[in-house]
């Protein structure tokens, strides 16, 4: 969405000519345009921008291998310590916590410009709206995404996705739920809320920003194959439209989390039992 606040030109700070008796406190100014651009680059380089580069390299590796795409498997949640469940659990919780660090950084960067997570609608002010709209989005995007995955896999355009490769520990389902929540918070706060907000402040038109956000989302999912690249591109366009329309990222977090919970936990019980699901 567009913001009414536009960044000033980057100029050296000048001393305030007013005396202490006449000076009035003012809100921190929005950083200059160049500073905002570097802020975006640095945050993405530490999070989903780096994931996009990694996904492209992974996809090129799979694409140049002798096997077809469908013969490769992408495991989304993997064991971190074979046959050592408590150590594995520690690593799983560590990965969830570290994965959320860029969200904390985004919150700090917004606070630095006299904004907050409430600015992008990452709060609990409208819980019923967030839950209702998030659930509807999850149903629509989840059903469409599943169809794209199955069809593109059968066409040899997508790798076999193993949402969970955990080893049947008592804590598997809670960890999968935490991983799903981490994905929802990280991706929607960074790639939709923060990025669209900052690009709007830089003067980008809403749909130009939405397309850029959607392309980034598609690229960091490219390791899953061509079919899921386009599936996530469409998901990004829908989520971007929703954010531009309502100015809230929380329903998108709910939707993404629900989609991943169904995928992660459902794979434990359904993959191998339903003939039409790739396995």
From TrEMBL:
<feature type="transmembrane region" description="Helical">
    <location>
        <begin position="93"/>
        <end position="110"/>
    </location>
</feature>
<dbReference type="GO" id="GO:0008237">
    <property type="term" value="F:metallopeptidase activity"/>
</dbReference>
<feature type="domain" description="CAAX prenyl protease 2/Lysostaphin resistance protein A-like">
    <location>
        <begin position="170"/>
        <end position="261"/>
    </location>
</feature>
<feature type="transmembrane region" description="Helical">
    <location>
        <begin position="222"/>
        <end position="242"/>
    </location>
</feature>
<dbReference type="InterPro" id="IPR003675">
    <property type="entry name" value="Rce1/LyrA-like_dom"/>
</dbReference>
<keyword id="KW-1133">Transmembrane helix</keyword>
<protein>
    <submittedName>
        <fullName>CPBP family intramembrane metalloprotease</fullName>
    </submittedName>
</protein>
<keyword id="KW-0472">Membrane</keyword>
<feature type="transmembrane region" description="Helical">
    <location>
        <begin position="131"/>
        <end position="151"/>
    </location>
</feature>
<feature type="region of interest" description="Disordered">
    <location>
        <begin position="1"/>
        <end position="30"/>
    </location>
</feature>
<keyword id="KW-0645">Protease</keyword>
<feature type="transmembrane region" description="Helical">
    <location>
        <begin position="249"/>
        <end position="271"/>
    </location>
</feature>
<keyword id="KW-0482">Metalloprotease</keyword>
<keyword id="KW-0812">Transmembrane</keyword>
<keyword id="KW-0378">Hydrolase</keyword>
<dbReference type="Pfam" id="PF02517">
    <property type="entry name" value="Rce1-like"/>
</dbReference>
<feature type="transmembrane region" description="Helical">
    <location>
        <begin position="40"/>
        <end position="63"/>
    </location>
</feature>
């Amino acid at each position: 969405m567009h913001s009414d606040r536009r960044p000033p030109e980057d100029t050296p700070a000048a001393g305030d000519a007013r005396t202490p008796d006449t000076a009035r406190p003012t809100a921190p100014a929005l950083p200059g345009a160049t500073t905002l651009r570097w802020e975006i680059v640095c945050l993405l380089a530490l999070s989903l921008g780096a994931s996009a580069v990694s996904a492209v390299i992974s996809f090129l590796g799979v694409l140049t291998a002798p096997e077809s795409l469908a013969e490769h498997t992408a495991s989304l949640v993997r064991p971190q310590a074979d046959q050592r469940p408590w150590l594995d659990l520690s690593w799983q919780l560590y990965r969830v916590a570290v994965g959320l660090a860029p969200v904390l950084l985004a919150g700090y960067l917004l606070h630095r410009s006299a904004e907050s997570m409430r600015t992008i609608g990452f709060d609990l002010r409208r819980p019923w709206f967030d839950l209702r709209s998030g659930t509807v989005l999850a149903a629509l995007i989840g059903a469409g995404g599943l169809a794209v995955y199955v069809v593109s896999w059968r066409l040899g355009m997508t790798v076999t996705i193993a949402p969970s490769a955990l080893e049947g520990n008592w804590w598997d389902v809670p960890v999968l739920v935490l991983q799903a929540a981490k994905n929802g918070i990280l991706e929607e706060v960074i790639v939709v809320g923060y990025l669209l907000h900052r690009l709007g402040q830089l003067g980008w038109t809403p749909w130009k920003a939405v397309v850029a956000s959607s392309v980034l989302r598609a690229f960091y999912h490219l390791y899953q194959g061509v079919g899921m690249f386009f599936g996530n591109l469409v998901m990004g366009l829908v989520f971007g439209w929703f954010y531009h329309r309502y100015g809230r990222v929380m329903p998108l977090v709910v939707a993404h989390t629900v989609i991943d919970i169904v995928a992660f936990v459902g794979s434990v019980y359904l993959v191998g039992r339903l003939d039409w699901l790739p396995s």
